Amino acid sequence: IPKKNELIPFIQTITNLIVVAIENNHVSGEKIRQAAMRRDLELAAQMQSMLFPVTLPDKAGYRLQALYLPHQEVGGDYYDYIPISEDEFVFCMADVSGKGIPAALLCSNFQANLHAHVNVSSTLPELVRLLNQKVFKSAKGEKFITMFIGRYNSKTRELTYVNAGHNPPFLIHEKVVYMLNEGSTALGMFEELPFVNVGKTFVPGNAFLHCYTDGVTDVENEAGEDYGAFRLREFFTSRIHENDLKKVHQQLVDTLASFKQTGMYTDDITLLSCWFKV
What we know:
Blueprint: H1 4-49, E1 62-69, E2 77-83, E3 88-96, H2 100-117, H3 124-139, E4 145-153, E5 158-164, E6 170-173, E7 176-179, E8 183-184, E9 199-202, E10 207-212, H4 214-217, H5 228-237, H6 245-260, E11 269-276
Parallel strand pairs: 5-8
Antiparallel strand pairs: 1-11, 2-3, 3-4, 4-5, 5-9, 6-7, 6-10, 10-11
Helix pairs in contact: 2-3
């Protein structure tokens, strides 16, 4: 029979083996959980990519181009182009408060409601009020969506729009810049919007419209300075003779990367631009 002092090393060895086995089982379980989360995020990212238009038009009267760079696998930025008739189309940019899957789910719900009602709402204010009700009902007042929505008639060259608390897009002709800020509060903050103002403007030939989310203007450099709306306005104004919108977007991405230096992006970066041809 082994003596007591001879059993102690044996017991310690067995105990160590049991501890290692438990830790290995925990690590294995954590790896499985992380793999499942990655699969969920990949699926969510695939689903979110389906919200965006497959192609954007390049027609005789106008050309649209967009850029979307998510900060995480999924985000809350959204843009869209919806043809209404041969002469008219609706375009939209939105930004859901928050990040990750909850923001992406609300974004998906918003897209579905927009497509379901854009052709049956007689006016933009009616559509915006309806979208606000849907967002408020879905988010229970805990999240909101900033949105810019425009309707353009290529025959009359009239642009009508509502800016629901979103960063004002730039409409640039030559070196004159119009800030499109008429509208309402963000969607989902109130059960009923307190007001909805409609902006209307004539779009001259060879004008450019640039919509963006605050992920662009909020980029910070090492000194803690935002890139800001002023720098963005100067950037677009300096490129009024460049109609390759994809090239302009890439130049902006390069500019932001140079501006932030070693800093990190903190939000999605989304751009939607339109060149209104002569």
